[in-house]
Amino acid sequence: MDDAAPVNWEALDALVIDFATSENLIEQQPQESLADSPASPLSPLSPSSSSVSSSSSSSYHSRLIIRQIRRCLAAGDIDAGIELLRAHAPSVLDDHRVLFRLQKQKFIELLRKGTEEGRDAAIACIRTALAPCALDAYPEAYEEFKHVLLAFIYDIHDQSSPVANEWSEKKRSEIAGLMTSVLRAHLQAYDPVFAMTLRYLISIHKTFCFRQGTTSPISDLTERLLMEERDPPAVPQESFYEAPPFDEVITVDIQALAHAVELTRQGAVDSLRYAKGDLFQAFQNELCRTKLDVPVLDELVREYCVYRGIVRSGFVASAECKVNQSEPGRLPSQNYSLEVDQATSIPSDGENSVITMHLDVSSENDVVVNSRPETDIEMRYASESTGNCEDCSTSEMQQPDISKLLQRNRNYTSGERSKRKRWRGRQDEQEYLSGVAYSACSKQDLDAVVARADIGGEHQGIEKQSTEDLNNTDDRYEIVLGIKDLAARGMATEVVEQVNALDPNFFSQNHALLFQLKQVEFLKLVSAGDQSGALKVACSHMGPLAANDPSLLKPLKETLVVLLRPHEEMLGKGLPLNALANSLQVAIGQRLGIEEPQLMRLMRAAMHTHNEWFKLQMCKDRFEGLMRIDSLKELETPLLSACSMLSSNADSSTQGSSQVTTSSSARLPEDGTSPAQVSSGEVCDESAILKVMEFLALPRADAIHLLAQYNGNAETVIQQIFA
């Protein structure tokens, strides 16, 4: 079974740029600010790009505050956490449920010191704060208050004591996670869309593989990237626990949320009520509870940004290539996993850790951010080179004069190259920490975390490459990105010239790519009115290529039909040049030993399982628009078929029809492969499906299969199950 799906890489570029800019991972120009970033239109929280722009910087600042509060609570410094709450979110402390839990943990932390002063402070805490909160926090609070007083009697090391759980440092993680959930919803400080989309897609991927009994082809990435543990949910008021009556409208939202983020029905009800019935806000609240390993995520994003020309390539070290070659499929960043919970009393929270595996970079080579709005599709052909070792090796290639090739490349793309950014990493978190009173989150604790994250040179100090090796790596990236940029701009002649200078044998193994380039050249000549020049290209190149490859004969005929009715506007809009540029980048990169980034492999597999999962569910994903998954499925028409559209449009115009406008993008083909086209309405009534799901707590697909056995009658299904 095919385990990959085509992805709109331009749409993924936009998501990744949004993430890197929102998290301040890339260096901004002096005139730029976080609020001016290209992330603005992607925010799911507001339809207005201007309002999103004004809130981008504050959202980032809020996330830093939340991480700081989390670290203080996780380190046992409850007072510092409360002070930060009073300064930045005072209304959160008005909820006595939250305040009681904080004061109860503060009481334990004071006793944990084991000193007379700590004991006296714990007694004062009981009298002035904990006992008053226990009276009206929630019905069970007073019983919990009396129970925690046993900590005065039982030793911290007594694992059989009735308060052993209260002494556990896991309680710190729980209260820190709870406050993170509460603050995230209160401050509307959600993670960038890309981080939430990855969580969602990976979760669906894991569920699909488990349900189908198949092995995940990306398990090496998903297991390290998405953590199993979740933060506790934000605490609802006690009145929320009333079970709502069965109502189809309400139930649709409950079931959609429950199955999207793997909640119980009651958990979905509580989440929706906490979000005041806003399904999408509840979905974001629940999705962000799952933790991502941020060092791994950052490395995936950095690798992708370098490959796509979003950030500069000066820091792509050959040492990293050596790691990847010795352990295929393994990111260098996995050596930097954070495991600091036991040693430092700070939980191993990759998502909120202050430590980032930052590799500083040279700032010499400027490159391009591919900001074209057009969509894109990955294009593969049988003749296109794959990841074979012989294709990736440059040892058998004729080595050109690299300096001349680079200079020629720069002459064409110098204006675009300056748009590329410098990767800066998560420097702001360290800077932010230095400006905030950290109190009991002592410098020693922080130094211990930093020391472990730096790995003392054991991992970070992978042997340094020589300047010559680094330059060679940079040069290869520059050459491939330059050729990609030329292809995206339709400069087919220049692309062929550069590729032949780089590897004269490349096109002999990639006939389809050469045909498409000549196709672009042909259409540009027709558009310019040079029909004789276009025919010369067809006779000299396209004809011989089609003669050797019968699959190219049909595109050749369709291309020639354009001669009958050249239409400059159609030619300009109808060519999916990004698709061709991306295919060239993949093929040429592999010839030079540059492998595709692992994020591409992850996205292909995850998009495939997303499609398959909702085909099984026989419904459309209600959250795919919010998570920008729909934009990742908007695919360009392949270049080999573009001329067919152009020629048919030209024929229509000759018959006196009105002006025809064509779109270069389309959804996945409506051949049953798109979950958006699959409906359960033909199988049974939606109300019946919901009733069976509700009463039997079944997934949607199972409910539909049961209904199909009993003619769609929900009452009969329920009676048979309970009979």
TrEMBL record:
Pfam families: CTLH. Residues 62-118, 476-533 form the CTLH domain. It comes from the Eukaryota. Residues 28-57, 649-680 are annotated as: Disordered. Residues 33-57, 652-665 have a biased composition (Low complexity). This is CTLH domain-containing protein. It comes from Linum tenue.
